[in-house]
Each structure stands twice: as C-alpha cells, then as structure tokens.
Amino acid sequence: MTTTPRQGALSRFTILDATRVRAGPTAVRLFADMGARVIKLEIPPGAPGGDDMIGGRDHNRADYENLHRNKESLTLNMKTPEGVAILHELVRKADVFIENYRPDVKDRLGIGPEQLRAINPRLVYASISGFGQDGPYARWPGFDSIAQGMGGLMSVTGEPGHGPMRVGIPIADLCAGHFCAQGVLAALLEREATGEGQWVQTSLLESQIAMLDFQAVQWLIDRKVPGQNGNEHPLTVPTGVFRTADGFLNVAAIGQTMWTRLCEALEVPHLVDEPGFGSDPERCANRERVNAAVGEAFLRRGTAEWTERLLKAGVPCGPIHRIDQVFEDPQVRHLGITWPMSHPELGDVSLIGQPMRLSAHPRTEPPRPAPQQGQDTDAILQELGYGAQRVAELRAAFIV
Hints:
This protein is α/β, with parallel strands linked by helices. It is 40% helix and 14% strand.
C-alpha cells in the first residue's frame, strides 16, 4: 500500500487492527505511536453487530483519543463475503493482523490465522482472548476484572479481612496488550530470518498470572498461599504507607541496611537492636509492633521534611500523589511523559506518551487524533483499486 511517508522505528510496517475495548487497542497503540501504518477496521454505521462496548467515541472521548491516536479508520463488514474479500486484499500487503474476538468468532467468519496466512505467509497474526484459544473456558467472554479475580490478583490486593479487591486500573487488559505487542515484535524479528510469519497468542488470564511474579512462586516453589497485605510488602517490614504530621509517605526500607538507615533518620536508633526487630523475617513476624514504633516517629514531622531526610539517608521513599498532582510533579514534567496534541474539537490537550525512549527517534511530532469512524475508507479503497461508483455500492450495502 502507498501512503504518506512516516517516521518512527516501525514505519515500514502495516498493521490491520481488528480489535476493540482495551487489550487489543493497547497492543496496537505501540505500533501506531512508533510510526507503523495502522488501519482500524470498524463495523460500518447501520450494519448489524456494531460495537457498543465501553471505550467508544461517545462514551468516554478522552479514553478513546488516548487508545486510538495515530490510526486510520476503514469501515468494513467482515460478516459479508464482500467484506472478507476486501480484507483479503488488505492482508496481501500487510505485515500484522491483530484481533481480540472470542476464539470461535474468527473461525466462524473465516478470518482465522490459517485462512489469512494462506493468503500471505509473511503475515504475523496476533490473537488476544480472555482465557486462551482452546480449553474449557475458551468461549467465555473476557473482561479485566474477571481475569483479575481468576488470576489471583484480587486475593493479594487490599487490606486483610476486607475481602478481595480489584486494582484501580484494568491491569489484565493492559498487560495482555503489552505482552501481545512483545510477541508480535519477536515474530517480526524472526520473520527477517525465516521469511515466514506466525500466530502470536496471549490472553487476559495468562497475562494476569504472569504479573503475579513473586507472589505466584511463593506457591509454586514454597507451597505458601500469599494473602492480602494492604499497602505493606508481604516479605519485608517496614515497607508501606505511613501517616505523617500533615499527610502520608510511602517508604521502602528493604533489608537490614535500609532498616538501620531508617531508624537513624527517624531518630530512633534504639529500634535497630530491639528484640524481634533484628532481621526481615523477625520484623515480618512482629509486623504490628514494628509499624507502630516506626509510625509513631513519622508523626513528628511533615511529608516533605521526611522525604528530604530519608532520601538524604538513602532510604527509598516518596509522596503519594493524586492524579492531578502526578502531572505537576517536577520530575514527571521533566520526563515529558505527556504528549501534547491539537484536536479539532477538543482543542489543545495532552495524551499519555509511550514510557520508553529511542535515541534514533526522538518524539518531536504531535500525535494524530483518533480517527472518525470510516474517515479513511474512501482513500484506502482507492489504493486497492476501487472506483467511486463501486465504493458507493459497497456503502449502500453496509459492506463498508
């Protein structure tokens, strides 16, 4: 396909985006932000089966802009033979096809990995599902909070005795998207050696379990079932949130060296040699006593003063920001994580940029706003050789 020259490390790739809601769009966003041509495939207005899931243009405009920036939009009804034929033409020249349908849906539509890779063997086909492409739960609909619960995260989140707690972001969705993007990049690298694409798979459940990390291996290796610890670390004390004279402070005094530094900075050096406080295992066994003693000391000064004193002593700590305070923090402003954008309707706003930097491709161009539904349909079909009359016929039949 011919298109306007793009900048970025991935500008030589074309991605077909058949995803919706959050996990899939999160994966695709990485490619769009790094210069790839991304064509978002959407159900045509008026066609049956339109997308009414959360995250749509009208439901939450800010979220939609952040998820779908830097894309083109092609309306295409893949439930029709004519729509599938157009998809096949796109696939012949594409590098990646990403979808997050339930596993049975793509097979029913005839757009699964075997069908599309038969058309273009170099195609990297990526699938994100709720629970995997096969198995007893394969046809269950996937949703972030369900994966958080089934993947164990809610059992280790929140205060003890208060029941399971969902974390404040859709972490299963987001991690599934990021893992999918990593898998696609690995497949593209291997394609350079073999000339062949492949099928990349991940799921919300697998991604959530992978993110359990040290909590999971407490069971897999030590046969210990971890529980809830609130703001505290399950394996080292004192680590967590402490009230100060004017607010709260996050502290991570991990290990004996940090414990000694903390006690000295808090002007309670006698706690270092307090019986039962001499090692991480001992302090974990006496968690309430340790936290009470340290907590009493923290009440003597405010958050800013403690932050300065503890950092000077080499103890990791930091304030706890509201979302608005995050973006006023001087280090956050210095990092430039926000991405200013001029929007024809919203005006001058900012999105969240990618949290990685490539020295060869500094981020100098503003993001392009998320596309209006089907705004690029005519141009893309013209590239494929469709004339105006044929496009009008396809629109009238709700194929595009």
